[in-house]
Design a protein that fits this description.
Length: about 325
Amino acid sequence: MILKEKKIYIAGHTGMVGSAIKRRLEAEGFNNLIFRTLSGLDLIRQHEVEQFFNSEKLDIVIVAAAKVGGIWANNIYRAEFIYDNLMIEANLIHSAYKYGVEKLIFLGSSCIYPRLAPQPLKEEYLLSDYLEKTNEPYAIAKIAGIKLCENYYLQYGSNFYSVMPTNLYGPYDNFDLKTSHVLPALIRKFHEAKINNSSPVELWGTGKPLREFLYVDDLADAILFLLQKVNADDVYKQSITHLNIGTGKDISISRLAELISQTVGFNGEIVYDKSKPDGTPRKLLDVTRMTALGWKYKTLLIDGIKKTYEWFLGNNGR
């Protein structure tokens, strides 16, 4: 059976990441993709997940389903972020093993790395120091997912492994000012300030933290590459538990704000509330291993911001 005919389940296909993977695979002619919405399958319920795997006889699983959010949401909904994510990944990964799935790719997050780990972040820095407190519950859940994949491989030989994308953005992102990540939140803030002719725009923190951003369609391209060319043996033989996926380049929040304000057309003042948290000072992934395997990002940040704002205007903007 060729890869395009295999039965592939994308968990979380309605989210930003899952929908990008779905678009990419469909564009490549994959014709046996499986989806379920929350109303049809609650991934937190073990019995429902096992029934689904038993009936569908899946070949490949991509775990893009997760409860996600920015600093505010991670810090306020700490219990939900650890519980929901632990249950989702445990149910999916165990059922994939139990019902004979031949390949599983688990998507984590760069917040798994210690707050003050050396930069850029190498895969082997996992569990080397303390996590950032504001998103510790989410990070711990994602680390548990990595270790599930690793140990099902070590004990059972399951072709399961994890990838850690950097900060993602693009179509179908969450633009809610309370629960979104920084880039879509800035798009929303500057857009509303422009149409309401209001200034200044106030942003949290100092603007000094450095962040890396990857356009979500580039991540989808990376997942296609991994499906076609990389198996668990290729990952674990390097004595690591996962692969970083990013651009290998970062930018300060203040510079990001300038780029977004220019793209949106906001010409007012930007001020920073230094009493609010910055989060981790820097998060830049070392992408040496993915580059060596043969994959590299394509979309420049300024181009990705323009595409994301265009999508926002067509779907959310007033």
